[in-house]
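Please describe our next protein:
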Amino acid sequence: MRARTPFVIFQAMTLKTNTSDMSSSTLENAGWSTRTPGDRVLMALKLQGRLSSAAIGQKLGISGEAARQQLMRLAEQNLVVATSEARGVGRPQQYWDLTPAAQSRFPDTCASLTEQLLNIIRSHMGESALDMIINVRESETQRRYLEELGGKKLLGDRVAALAALRSKEGYMADWHEAEDGSFLLVENHCPISAVAAMCGGFCSAELEMFKTALGDEVSIHRAEHIIQGDRRCTYVIREGAFP
């Protein structure tokens, strides 16, 4: 049995929807199988665009209040956002849209395409060509990191800036200072995990990038690693050498 995707199963069939009458059954007939009420709300907004809670409820066969409750939960997760629009006499109507963060909840073939391209490079051009690509990526990313961290004298400020950069790249990064004066950089997600699993050079290159960006006088140790089966990647960072 094939593994289900994190959000939906996309069946190999033409997607046909009637945007003027997208009922709950239409979602299923379109080839999508959603898991939760919140998923169904996201799918309605994906297929129809901007909608009110009442319209979502009508299309999904639930009450407008039930749809609103789902929307409030999704808003707390930064997956939907509300805007108000005045239409004639009376209070402004509230409409809901997907946020950019919600797009990651839908099927994406980018990872599998990247894997395929790397396999083609490795098989047809050799390991050296793959190493060259990793080195070019490392150099470009390292230059950007140095530009952002270069003017920061305190290690804590540099770690904070690095965490912010990594979060922008999709790593859901955070950091904190430990009692012994060291710092912990935490990455709760790896957006390139599929590629990193097939080519360890990406992880090695990133560790070197961190060392260069944070400074020669800084020591860094990877304590947890998603590729090795851990829940997250963590890096212990401190001034000078480890004891």
The two ends are 50 Å apart (CA to CA). Residues 1-32 have pLDDT under 50 and may be disordered. DSSP finds nine helices and eight strands in the chain.
